Each structure stands twice: as C-alpha cells, then as structure tokens.
Amino acid sequence: MGSRRLRIAVVGATGLVGGEIVSQILRSRIDVGDLLLFSSDRSSGHLAWLGKGHQEVRPFRLEDLCGCDICFLAVGDDFSKEYAHRITSLGITVIDNSSAFRMDPNVPLVVPEVNPEDLAWHRGLIANPNCSTIQMVVALAPLHRRWKARKVVVATYQAVSGAGGQAVGELAEQAQAILEGRKAASGSLPKQIGFNLFPHIGDFDSEGWSTEESKMLNETRKILKDNEIVVVPTAVRVPVFRGHSEAIYVEFEKPIDLGTAREDLSRAKGVKLMDDQRQTIYPTPVECANKGDVFVGRLRKIPGCPNAISMWVVADNLLKGAALNAVEIAELLCADARK
Amino acid sequence: MGSRRLRIAVVGATGLVGGEIVSQILRSRIDVGDLLLFSSDRSSGHLAWLGKGHQEVRPFRLEDLCGCDICFLAVGDDFSKEYAHRITSLGITVIDNSSAFRMDPNVPLVVPEVNPEDLAWHRGLIANPNCSTIQMVVALAPLHRRWKARKVVVATYQAVSGAGGQAVGELAEQAQAILEGRKAASGSLPKQIGFNLFPHIGDFDSEGWSTEESKMLNETRKILKDNEIVVVPTAVRVPVFRGHSEAIYVEFEKPIDLGTAREDLSRAKGVKLMDDQRQTIYPTPVECANKGDVFVGRLRKIPGCPNAISMWVVADNLLKGAALNAVEIAELLCADARK
After folding, report:
1. Closest residue of A to B231, CA-based?
2. How far, rounded to the nearest angstrom, does the alpha carbon of residue A287 sit from its chain's CA centroid?
3. B37, B108, B278, B320: which one has the fewest Cβ atoms less than 10 Å from its Cβ?
4. What pTM did the predictor assign?
5. Chain B hits for A157, Cβ within 8 Å
6. DSSP letters of A246-311?
7. Rg, chain A, Cα only
8. What distance in Å separates the CA atoms of residue B133 and residue B114, rounded to the nearest whole number?
9. Is A243 left (phi over 0), alpha (psi -120 to 50) or beta?
10. Which chain A residue has its CA at the smallest distance from B284's CA?
11. Rounded to 5 degrees, what are φ and ψ at A225?
C-alpha cells in the first residue's frame, strides 16, 4: 500500500454493517481506486449506490479479490473462519467485523483511539471489536490511563440494528401490530421486541453469561492489555432502531477527580461530552444516530466511593460500533504505509 | 378496624395507579363495605367500573372522608403534603403513594415482604415506596438477610406508565408517527420516547443524580434499615408501556453461594424465579405485565468476585411497584387489627 490508489473489497455489502462500510470508505481519507462489492450469500445481484453511481453486488468468489489491497469482511463468523486466512494468503489485508478471530492471540483487536499501536504487529488480519465493547473502551480508556480501572459494571441498551436488517423489520412490524391492537408475530429475535426488551444477546454459556457479555469482558481485556480488569455486563436488546446506550459504573485503583475526568474526556479523540443536566443535555440514541463519535453524559461521583464514577455512553452501533471503526483501522493502515 | 366491614377511599382514582388500587382492593382480602372514589383535580365526573357496577369519581373534599377507615392517596407530592396529615387527624389511616413522606422518620416506608414490622409504629400515615425501589428490595432482601449486601449497582429500564397516562399516549403517538415516516411530536417527557430512551426520571440534583436515583438509594436504606448500603442507580425511561426491568449487580459482605441464593429466592414471598437460560426463560416486561410478583432471572456469579452476584429483575410497575404494594399494606393492617 504505497502511494497508488487502492483496490478495496467489501464482502457482505448488502448487510447493514457492510452498507455502512461502503459509505464510510467513500467519506474516508482512503485513496480508493476500485471498490468491489460482494455478498456472502443469496443477496447478490443487488445494486449498491456509491455516490457517483450504482454498482452491482456480486456473489463472493475468492479469485475475484486478486489485486485487492484491503478486504473488509462484514459477514458471519463461519464465513470469516472459512475465508479470512485464504484472503490474507493472497497478500490482501483483511479487516474482519465478525467475532471469529477477535480473541486469537495472533490477531490484533483494534480501536484506533485506544490501541493503534497493536496494528504494528498484524499479519494480514485485523479484527474489529464488538459494538458494545468499542463504545465502552473509547469512553473508558482516557480514564483508565490516568486512574487504572479495576472493575466495570455495565448494563447495555442495544438497538435492533445490531441484530441485522431482519430484526429492524421485526421491531417495526411488531410495534405496528401492537399499536393496532393486534398480537405481535414472533420472528428471528428470541422474544418480542415491540414495546418490550430482553437480556439476551447471542447464546448463553453454562455459567449464565451471554456471548455478548463475554465479548465485553474478553475484548476489553485484550484491547486495554489488562487481564486483571473485571467487566460485569448485562447485555439487553431494547426497542430502538439505531444507537446503543450503556450505563457504566467504574471502580479505579485510585481516587478519581470529576473535573479532571471531564477534561480528559473532552480532549479524548472520538469522544464527545454531552453532559449538562441543567440544560437536559445527555446523549440518547436518536440524537447520536448517524454520528461517528462516542457520546458521554451523566458523569457523576458516588458518595462514599472516592475511586468510582458512573457515566452514560451512547454511540451509533453501525458506525463507531462497526463500520466506522473498521474504516478507521484501514485509514490508519494507509497512513502508516505512507510514512 | 375491628371486624366490621371497612369504608375505604381512593383519591386519584382516575389515574393509572389509582385505577389499579381500586382493582386490587376489589381482589384483596380486605372486607370492603364502602368504596369512595375521588379525583384530586379536573378529572372528576368520570365513571369507574367496579366489577358490580359503575361508580362516579367525585372531586375530593376532606369532609366527604368522614367515617372512612383507610384512605389511599394516589396523587402528586403537593396534594399529599397538603392533605395527608389533615386526613389522619380525622382518625383515618392514610397509605400514600407519593414520595412526600417516604423519608419522614415518623412515617414507616413498607414493603410487606421485606419490613412488615415497620407497620407496628405507624401514626396513621404509611408511605408506599418508589416503584423501582420496591422490586429491587423484594429481590434483594432474601439475599441481604443471609449475606448482607454492601453495594448495589443497578440500571433500570422503566416503562412509560410510571410517568402516568399522558406518557403512555405519548409513546403510542410518537411510535406511530415514526412508523409512518413522520417526525415525533414532543410531549410531556423530557426527550423523545418513541423508539428512543433517556436516563432522566425526575429532576437532577447538583451532583448529577436524578430524583428517581436518589429515591432508590435513600428508600432502600430506610426499608432495609441499613445506612451503610451503597446503591448506585442509573434510572432510564424506555419505550415499553408496562413493566420495569432492572439489571442489578450486588456485592455482599460474605461469599455468596448461587444454589443457596436460588433456593432463598424461590422460597421468598412475592418472588418468582424465572431462570433457565437453556429454555430461554428469563422475565421480560410483556411477560410480567398484569402480574403481581417480582420476577427474577439471569442469576449469575462473577468470576473473580466470590462476594458478588448479577441478576435481572422485572415487575409490573403499576401493581407490585405501586397499587398492589399499597393494597398489601392495607391487608396487613386489617390482619393485624383482627388479631
């Protein structure tokens, strides 16, 4: 990846995240020559709008990637497991949005604002973290650097778009049915989501933790390079279309100063402080949808707990929680290559 | 209140909670002679359905309470402050659902499953706790008795019915507008609630805590008679009509055993364990609406934290969170009187 224009592929371009990756690539500082769009499955043949015109989304074929510099995978774990290493063996850098390789010790798991240094040791494959993890570590890292976080208790309020396009339709249809006095038809989500919510994202392990919750613990430890930090999540799907929210309580090694925390956060890259309760200013999903930052509000100290803080963190799960973070990884790769 | 049939008044009978109080009285073991329904305001003249027929809701007049045994107040703080003591001075026992007297040291704050003994020292006025507090302490008390809870971190998912009938209409109207591609009109709630949520229930104090959050700390301490317990809440309004949910993390003084915790909870009065993740069994608001219990699920231990536990607690905010708890207080008063 020198100074020539890049040939970039997006696999899974008809999905919610894949579509946003395409948009974010076109808005990025990446010097795009060719942009090849693939679907992993039956949704090929669709047309994607690329600003300057339409482009057909083709069914994925490994040989069609020849000559590519970067390949984004916005597909399921199984597809990534099958193809990621085969793509890197073609000399193509893969940025994988699935969870297939996130905990692989040979694969860096990168949030550009938090651990850009981990890009240095990639071997062709870079993992994009889980949506809930990304927004949490972006807000946590500036405070962790100064006071060292030891325990994080987090409850999430996760939008249906995190479960894909079908879940988005399911929320709309169930809500409409209920408003009309009809029964909500069940769908792909584990329980009714129209005017309801449930603490169930992914599968449950034998100890009772959901995969989403385990990801928040394990990925946070890997990104912060701190296996002592304890993360206690409850991951909850809520009837919101776009934008994940998190109520986060953090205990640090040392007493924390609220003014300094505010300063650190307001200066932190990728963070926007929205915290003035007198003016009803705190982030909510609809206010943060389609925006790239991680929004932090309701910062407060706990009486009797000098080492602790509570905050409210909202971000667009499809952008910073997925597509934007992946494209920022690519931007960083390109900038490093130009050095 | 000996063995004769009781004369009972409900003030605020046209509100969501007042209406449920009437229903719960009629389903209770209270031997009701007369049931007088009052509104505190302009909504008088409405008819309330009482099972055996309709009854008019009259505008409140203090003198109309003469001869009553129990008066339920399901009205705002201001009304309760103005009238509660004037009603008790007529020899009538007041059960007040407002927050006006909850922290008054002369007024017991009672959850029948948790601190029935506090009814013994009432002086005519008994306070019904906050909805979010009630369901939390019902789930917490059995564990607290055995292991002594020291710190509780709780994030709430609170239904709009907790904000009254107008907020219920607001959610329905905003959701309908958004489904039709229109803009959601703003209403009485601080931010859009249709397909959105916000961490703002009540007003904010100078330290950044909302009144709902302060209630959860202060009322829990009073009910459990433990001023050392730390409660760190984030109170959030969600686009759900009925049923509050809570993600609760608790640290105890001693290591906790999950099997014993399950046993204690399954035996606890007013608690229903819904906890079998293999069968997708955990409580959600729509499953718990119109039911009287506090439902507990997703009980799990925290690796590396032997003294801690996480759980998911759901209850109908209008029933156990308000009307049912108030009527259970009255039942207990009547049972004590019969002894």
Report:
1. A302
2. 18
3. B278
4. 0.96
5. 157, 197, 236, 238
6. EEEEEEESS---HHHHHHHHHHSTTEEE--BGGGTB---HHHHTT--SEEEEEEEEETTEEEEEEE
7. 20
8. 12
9. left
10. A198
11. 55, 50
Every domain of chain B with CATH number 3.30.360.10 lies at 133-317
| Secondary structure string (H, E, C) spanning B269-335 | CCEEECCEHHHCECCCHHHHCCCCCEEEEEEEEECCEEEEEEEEEEECCCHHHHHHHHHHHHHHHHH
Overall average pLDDT of the B10-26 stretch: 96
Instruction: Please check the confidence at residue A44 and state whether its pLDDT lies above 60.
Output: no
Residue A96 and residue A70 in contact, taking contact as beta carbons nearer than 8 Å: no
Sorting pLDDT into bands at 50, 70 and 90, what band is A55?
Answer: confident
Quote the Cα angle for B240-A213-B298, to 5°: 60
Q: Is A232 on the interface with B (CB under 8 A)?
A: yes
Per DSSP, A9 falls in state: E
Whether chain A has a CB inside 8 Å of the CB on B280: the answer is yes
The two beta strands, A32-39 and A58-59, are: parallel
* Chain A nearest-CA residue for B305: A230
Report B:71-130 residues touching A (Cβ under 8 A). none
pLDDT of residue A50: 56
Question: What is B134-181 written as a DSSP string?
Answer: HHHHHHHHHHHHHH-EEEEEEEEEB-GGGG-HHHHHHHHHHHHHHHTT
Question: Residue B48: helix, strand or coil by DSSP?
Answer: strand
User: Residue B189: which of B236, B250, B138 has the closest Cα?
Assistant: B236
In angstroms, rounded to a whole number, what is the distance separating the alpha carbons of residues A49 and A19?
9
Name the segment(s) of chain B with CATH classification 3.40.50.720. 6-129+322-338
Query: Does A177 touch chain B if contact means CB atoms closer than 8 Å?
Result: no
Q: What is the pLDDT of residue B53?
A: 55
Using the beta-carbon criterion (under 8 Å), do B302 and A230 form an inter-chain contact? Answer: yes
- Report chain B residues whose CB lies below 8 A from the CB of A196: 240, 284-286
A217: tokens are 């613990």
| pLDDT over 90 at A285, yes or no | yes
Question: Would you place residue A54 in the very low, low, confident or very high pLDDT band (cuts 50, 70, 90)?
Answer: low
Amino acid identity of residue A223, one-letter, is I
Query: What is the rounded CA–CA span in Å between residue A222 and residue A234?
Result: 19
Among 3.30.360.10, 3.40.50.2300, 3.20.20.80, 3.30.230.10, name the CATH number for the domain at B133-317.
3.30.360.10
Paired with B251 in beta bridges are B151, B308
- The Cα–Cα gap between B127 and B106 comes to 10
Contact predicate B100/B88, CB 8 Å: no
